[in-house]
Amino acid sequence: MLRYLSIRDFVIVAQLELDFTGGFTALSGETGAGKSILLDALSLALGERGDGGMVRSGCERAEISAEFDIAGLPGLQLWLEQQELPGDDGVCLLRRVLDAGGRSRGFINGRSATLQQMREASEWLLDIHGQHAHQSLLRPDAQRDLLDAYAGARGLAEQVSGAYKTWQMLEQRCRELSQNAEAMAAERELLSFQAQELESLDFSIAGWQETQAEYARLSHAASLLETAEFGLDVLGESEVACLPQLNALIARIETGIEVDPALGETLQLLDSARAELQEAVYALRQYQRRLELDPQRQRTLERTIQTVVDAARKYRVTPEELPQAQARVAARLAELGGDADLDALQRQAAQAYQSYLGVAQRLSGERRAAADQLSREITAAMQTLAMQGGSFVVSLATLAEGNRHGLESIEFQVAANPGMPVRALAKTASGGELARISLAMQVALSEVAQVPTLIFDEVDSGIGGRVAEIVGKLLKRLGQRHQVLCVTHLPQVAASADAQWQVSKTTRDGSTFSDISVLSPAQRVDEVARMLGGITLTETTRKHAAEMLGHTLAD
Fold first, then answer.
1. How many CA atoms are closer than 13 Å to the CA of 349, on its beta-carbon side?
2. Cystine design at 43: which of 48, 409, 448, 551 (Cβ 3.0–4.6 Å)?
């Protein structure tokens, strides 16, 4: 569960550090105080996208850190090990830094992490139910996803989607092969020729480079021989060569040293130069012996190079890209070769359909069982949410042909009043009824959820009175199995919480600040009284608030 949250310079929060407990915690406060900022900051720490406008005005960066107890989440611990993001035993620390320019960095257990990794980790940690969740309840895809989530069949639904995709791909290949048999045969013939042609080149990058280097040497062999001969003449084999004259100079200086030892340093330099020149002569002679004129070899290399250049031009690539061209031809030929036998391909398609049908039928069974249970659960919840006599049905209509979502279409149907026939939720429910049904749906899904922390952001909007009290009891019941946080404006909901926090907004030195306080029992009485009766508190509202909370006011 969530144990600790630190927020710095985020929107109108300067600095906030919160320690969390289990059970049901309500967050309340006046309109505009920033109750949802806590959830926005938490969402950012869990990998949601942010922008520079979230950084507090005048600050360079915002920073959010969230610490979770994951001792009861072995799956997440294994995932962290696999991602090389381990932390302390039983602890997962998420941290997000967002600068005013919009750039952000994420960290898991002190190690740099991508937003995708942070979002994947968040799926183990908590669920956030937004205040507008009831709007998505009208979409068929959302209804299907909700039923699969309730059935614990999301993984099975993904298998169905993958099996359907494989089946349809093979069916499409069968159609293509049947309709374009001649064209595909011609393409295979051309590709076979190209594959043989490219293979006969026996081309490799290293060999190509060696061929070019050898050809360059042979092409310039005569010139290089002349250069070597000229060098030998200059250094030691002509009448005015360097080495004989240098030797003569050295002999005279050796004689002069007997008269003036100061010439010794010059003699050393000349001896060194003579040694270097002699080495150069030796190297040139060795090079001259290795260098040979070979016109036949040169012509062979010319033909090889021309063949490669012509092939590269033909396939519209550079010579260095010929291996990639050969790989593309081989890949396409292999693809066509697998489709060459229409009968074999049709058998593969039939097998793929049976695989799809098998997994889709399993999904249908899971959905039917979950649909019956969810229908009963939501119908029962409606009786307590000011829709007595109403009923809710998850309808599964068999499709003539399956699709990537399975063998049936799914529709939520409702009768809001007794004696009325059920009709599609989108055509029947009013805004308030839809909000209450959505809340009941979220509670039902949360009861089967595996994540330890559930957060509700004003999902109780549009209800009040006795219904609000029932909603509070529903959330309190959830708090017995999960850590539950709920942003609420209803005193009945807040009074049902195990703990209550108050979000307040103040202005200091022309700047706006948002803060959160953990309320004591006496402070809870005043806050619930404010929620009941407004800013001015009376003894009547305070007594009413104390009664809701089960407290006794001090005299």
1. 17
2. 48
